[in-house]
Each structure stands twice: as structure tokens, then as C-alpha cells.
From TrEMBL:
Highest taxon listed in the record's lineage: Bacteria
Protein's UniProt name: MaoC family dehydratase
Entries under InterPro entries matching the protein: HotDog_dom_sf, MaoC-like_dom, MCH/BMMD
Residues making up the signal peptide according to the UniProt record: none
Residue span(s) of domain MaoC-like: 24-139
Amino acid sequence: MSAAESTAPGARITQRGLWFEEFQIGAVYEHRPGRTLTEADNVLFTTLTMNTQALHLDAAWSATQPGFDGQRLINSMLTLSTIVGLSVAQLTQGTLVANLGFSDIAFPAPMFAGDTLYAETECTGKRVSKSRPGEGVVSLTHLGRNQHGVVVARASRSTLVRLDPEGQR
């Protein structure tokens, strides 16, 4: 008998996101741990996406700009992508069908290398799809805060999510 066969039987739980029915309108889902963004993250993301803005790549130029504290800014698209990424395991892993769109995107405060990004998501609405059986539209508002609790990004998102194939669990 192998070690695996000799272990006591127990539940097997696979991590997944939420089925449509599990989203609660008004609930705020806090995504932890956060992610500390590094200079390497910023340069890699910025160059991979062909964004040649000096404020992300040129340390000497950035040091001369007011409000930059002598640093290059973290690419705002990296900030947004990381906020959404931080939400995946808790909300949409294996249950998302598609992103339908983003709106009301804002970056009210800058992120710099070494800052830690924490994300939270509020479910702001949901409805069963009229045209896609077994799926529903879920509206989300993502919020990113730095390690000091300052809001650095906000975005509304519309998603298409699977209904629970086995009904209410």
C-alpha cells in the first residue's frame, strides 16, 4: 500500500472562483496577499507592451519631474493588471467566461518601485444572461491601495460568469 493509499479519506477541495450565484451584491472581497511591485516588474512590463514613456523608463529624466519624488512611475497598466490578477483566485478562477469591458478607470495616486499593491473588489450588480444560457453578467468595481492605504487605482468591470452547473450548493 502506497503512502497516498494509506492516508485517511477526506474532502478534496479544488480552488476556484465564485459561481454566478455565489457573488453577493454589495460584498467587498479583499484579495490577499498583496504584491510589491519592483523596478524590474515595471521595466519588463513597460518594454513588453512597447510603452516608451520616459516617466517609466528614464530614471534621470524622471528625477527632474515634480511630484515623482525622484523616481520612475510604475506603469498604470501594470497597476491595473495586477489588481485584476490579485482577484482571480478568489473570484474568477475557472468560472469566468469572458471580460466584457472596463470603464471608469482612474489612477488618483502614483505607484513607485517598492510600493505594495493591495486589491479589493466590490460586486455592484449581477443578472442572468438573456442570450447565453448557463451564464450571467457580474459587475465589479476593483480598487487598489498602496501599503499606506492610499487609493492608487479604481476600475469598473463587467464580466460573464458561469452559473453553478449543479444549482445552489
